Amino acid sequence: MKTKGFFITFEGPDGSGKTTIINMIFEQLKKDFPNKKILLTREPGSNDDKLCMDIRNLLLNKDIKIDYRCEALLFAADRAQHVGEFLKPNLEEGSIILCDRFIDSSIVYQGFARKLGPENVWKLSEFAIQGIMPNLTLMLMVTPEVSNQRINSRVNNSGEQNRIDKEKESFHKLVYDSLNYQIQNDKTGRIYEVDASFEIEKVFEISYKKVIDTIKNSI
Question: Which of 10, 36, 103, 179 has its CA 20 to 30 A from that of 140?
Fold first, then answer.
């Protein structure tokens, strides 16, 4: 679906640093495009939507056992609300939107890692997104070893652990392999791989250059 706006998603394994990078890019875009509406959001749990936040709290609660099909449906429900109430209207107004995770995460985590089938998960999200797809997806990649180190460090520092943090190393290895599969089999050219093992400033530099080049080529 063609809109006036520009939609960028950020994907990668847990511990890739994408949340830090997306915030850095958000702040820099506001400086470089002062006359443009720049918005930052995420999935699950679009910040300004109570329903999405309620779904996020369910999905990340480590004390709740969720059937994998139910999990996939909850992510799709969150996405439908997010698209209908936030993404679509703002893109139609011409905003630049940065989103921490979107459809690729569902295909990788539920489709491949949960073994529900990427085609099945795609069908759920296809209904939810109303034709809205990213103009650009930055795929920030680190190895499973680095991912696990960073997750453990975060949990140790914060004392907080969600359902994904609790998964076994084999799960995170499957996520990594599935993300690589997405990169290698992207036929649209929207996925751009970034080596996120560098220092954060270098990752930002590489990522921001791609964002700026893609936006300028689209305006």
Answer: 36
Phi and psi torsions of 138, nearest 5°: -90, 120
**Type of residue numbered 138:** L
d(CA 96, CA 103): 18
* CA pair distance 139, 9, nearest whole angstrom: 9
For 218, the token pair is 């689209």
- SS3 string of 51-104? HHHHHHHHHHCCCCCCCHHHHHHHHHHHHHHHHHHHHHHHHHCCCEEEEECCHH
Mean pLDDT of 154-168: 68
Are the C-beta atoms of 193 and 25 separated by less than 8 Å? no
Q: What residues contact residue 134 under an 8 Å CB cut-off, 6+ apart?
A: 7, 8, 9, 99, 102, 190
| pLDDT tens sequence across 127-157 | 999 999 999 999 999 988 887 787 777 766 7
